[in-house]
Amino acid sequence: IAHGYQKEIVGIMGENVTFPVQIDQKIVEITWKKNKNKVAEWEYPNKPTYFGHLGNRSVLMENGSLTIVNLEKDDAGIYELVYWDSVNEHQLNFKLVMLSLLLDSLPKPEINCSTSDDELVLNCTANFQGSLTYTWKLSNNPHRYQNQELSIPLKNVDITTNATCIIKYSQTERSSEISLIQCLP
Fold this sequence. Notes:
Keywords: Glycoprotein, Immunoglobulin domain, Membrane, Signal. Pfam families: ig. This is LFA3 protein. It is found in: Membrane. It is a single chain. The protein has about 180 residues and is mainly β. It has 2 domains: about 5-100, Sandwich (Immunoglobulin-like); about 105-180, Immunoglobulins (Immunoglobulin-like). About 5% of the residues lie in helices and about 50% in strands. The chain is built from 1 helix and 16 strands. It has one helix spanning about 100-105, and strands spanning about 5-10, 15-20, 30-35, 35-45, 50, 60, 65-70, 75-85, 90-100, 110-115, 120-125, 135-140, 140-145, 150-155, 160-170, 170-180. A hairpin with a 5-residue loop joins strand 6 and strand 7. The longest helix is centred in the middle third of the chain and has 6 residues, at about 100-105. The mean pLDDT is about 90.
């Protein structure tokens, strides 16, 4: 695995999170750090040792995976796993993002529109780290469209219509609206 590779893990306050590690080699020694500070260390065949305020909330498993229980806001950060298989040292990095902090940063989406010869194209974008679902709603149409882009044939465009883009991450939504008349040349 390439050095500096980071897998993003999303944690939820009060719940548990496990960093997904699958080590097939026989491990001689393993160390987990958070922002460069040791969290847990295991020199086989001894028992694991835990450090710091995460020490009493973390569990290091035989396969190298680390579980943190009862997550707190401050648990967010970069976690680094270093293990030694008696020949080589290996390193894995994880970025733990707390959902509450992520949702605070969920922006209102931006709507852009353009017209071609025969259709009006609406595009919805949001600058956000997580994977979003995009939904379009037109004020003159009960149907919702699950897509980042919406195309409407120009002959069907009603200038009194508003289009709303809704983005959703987990259970949190943000939306923006545009009037179709703004899109016409």
